[in-house]
Design goal:
The chain is an alpha/beta fold. It is built from 18 helices and 14 strands.
């Protein structure tokens, strides 16, 4: 190339050398492409800090932002074809190139205003709250800009401060199952009928007070930012949208950058559209009790058809859906047929074991052996029925036996009670888990930080001491709710359905 021996070429000199020959025997855009490739080379050779070395939101040090005078050059970086070259045309483009901290590969995109804003926020240590007030944009907009840049690796954040303690350290422990990226608060806005105690048919709960709801949403955001995790609010209760102030509360959640999900009954098209106009939930979960005849015998005539119609409506409106089934001795053989029936209707079907101590004599499973057989059949059905999702922690025992990869368990970290999940009832009671009495405070008189940091919450986080020597504990720990509802101490007793030897 222009008399320069190939052995003496270095990446930094190539763009300039190409400038001299471009337009003669080479495309005019070739020097600019070389500049882009040089930026790629630089990005991939800048070392990235380990997460435990990062103290605050930081710009990825490998970031390269360059302006080029030809459009569509990025299409030439991966297996370019003749038609890709024909797309290149004069025109300025701003390109961002970086090394992905997670996958350790090269990333590149046309730089968007959001990317540049995120970089500016991190570089200048801008207060998101102050910037939101100044600009008139919502705090949620700024939070989403930052978290999107974090997901892409443009910004780096410290490691999550929601991390498992030494109690969970086993010979299989790894970062994948000890550090949460999302914290979920399941929130019953309405009075909810429960029967946690066999001697009490129903415990009545008041509606959650609106003013405290708004301050709690703000607390939730601060709580999660302090731990470098993302917040998710799951609105639950028998029918959360029926709360008179639901949409005001939901709007407040959207303005404070909370991911949202709905766990409730079918609602009208108009209500769904209103929901979407504020913020599209991550998913909408409904309940079924099995196939049509069995479901309607428990939930009322026509409920099955109504729920399936609602699932189709969710699909039409582009809302991800999920079906939850309480598994019992009477419907255990209906789960896989239900998956066959709802394939293409819903995105996910999953199940949980009896959460209701008041009705255990009616709904408990017949035996540990029966349950193990069901789990084996369930896992075997997943490849041909991808709508089936893994949730029950005990599935990992089968995975281990069969030499398959382990999944994260109930919340991605085995039992996530008081770890990356808490439940708040309409009367303010805070529980480590929503499926059994596990009180850790009352949000109407205490702050979220104090409740989460309490010794009681810490004890629930540790799970059952009976599982401490089990190497599956980080992705299992059984189900404390089942243990408690069968009359045992969930903090000292192994899940009665555990069949691991």
């Amino acid at each position: 190339m222009i008399g320069v021996p190939l052995s003496e070429l270095v990446p930094e000199t190539v763009p300039g050398l190409l400038e001299e020959v471009a337009g003669l025997t080479q495309p005019e855009w070739l020097p600019e492409l070389a500049r882009v490739e040089l930026a790629c080379h630089v990005a991939m050779n800048i070392p990235l800090p380990a997460t435990d070395e990062i103290e605050t939101v930081t710009v990825n040090p490998s970031i390269q932002v360059i302006t080029v005078s030809w459009k569509h050059l990025l299409t030439l970086l991966t297996f370019a074809k003749k038609q890709d070259m024909e797309l290149v045309e004069p025109g300025n483009e701003l390109i961002i190139i970086w090394s992905d901290p997670i996958n350790k590969n090269l990333r590149f995109e046309i730089a968007l205003p959001d990317h540049l804003m995120a970089i500016k926020i991190a570089n200048k240590k801008i207060s998101l709250e102050e910037e939101a007030l100044k600009s008139g944009l919502t705090l949620a907009w700024f939070d989403s800009v930052v978290w999107d840049a974090v997901r892409k690796g443009i910004l780096l954040v410290p490691q999550s401060r929601i991390r498992r303690t030494q109690t969970f350290m086993t010979d299989m422990q790894d970062n994948q199952h000890c550090s949460a990226e999302v914290f979920t608060l399941q929130w019953d806005l309405n009075q909810k009928k429960t029967s946690f105690s066999p001697s009490i048919d129903f415990i009545e709960q008041d509606s959650f007070p609106y003013n405290r709801a708004v301050t709690l949403i703000k607390e939730m955001r601060d709580f999660c930012w302090n731990r470098f995790v993302q917040p998710q609010l799951s609105f639950a209760g028998d029918s959360p949208l029926s709360n008179p102030q639901f949409f005001e509360i939901y709007k407040a959640a959207s303005e404070y950058a909370q991911m949202t999900s709905i766990l409730g009954d079918p609602v009208s098209r108009e209500e769904l559209k209103k929901l979407i106009s504020i913020q599209r939930p991550v998913y909408y979960q409904v309940r079924l009790e099995g196939l049509e005849q069995h479901n309607d015998s428990l939930r009322g005539s026509g409920n099955f058809k109504e729920t399936v119609e609602f699932l189709n409506l969710l699909s039409e409106l582009g809302l991800p859906s999920m079906v939850m089934v309480n598994i019992t001795r009477n419907n255990i053989d209906q789960i896989i047929p239900l998956a066959e029936l709802l394939e293409g209707v819903t995105g996910t079907i999953t199940f949980k074991r009896p959460p209701d101590a008041g009705r255990l004599n009616q709904i408990r499973l017949t035996s540990k052996e029966e349950y193990r057989t069901f789990l084996q059949q369930y896992l075997a059905a997943i490849p041909s029925h991808p709508v089936l999702a893994s949730k029950d922690n005990l599935l990992n025992i089968i995975n281990e036996e069969q030499g398959k990869s382990l999944f994260g368990g109930c919340t991605g970290f085995g039992c996530g009670a008081a770890f990356n999940f808490i439940s708040i009832r309409a009367n303010g009671e805070v529980h480590a888990c929503n499926n059994y009495p596990s009180p850790i405070g009352n949000i109407l008189v205490e702050g979220l930080e104090d409740i989460y940091n309490s010794a009681t919450a810490q004890r629930y986080r540790e799970g059952s001491s009976a599982c401490n020597d089990c190497k599956l504990k980080p992705v299992c720990g059984g189900c404390p709710a089942v243990t408690a509802n069968l009359g045992y101490d969930p903090l000292t007793t192994k899940d009665p359905y555990c069949f691991r030897i």
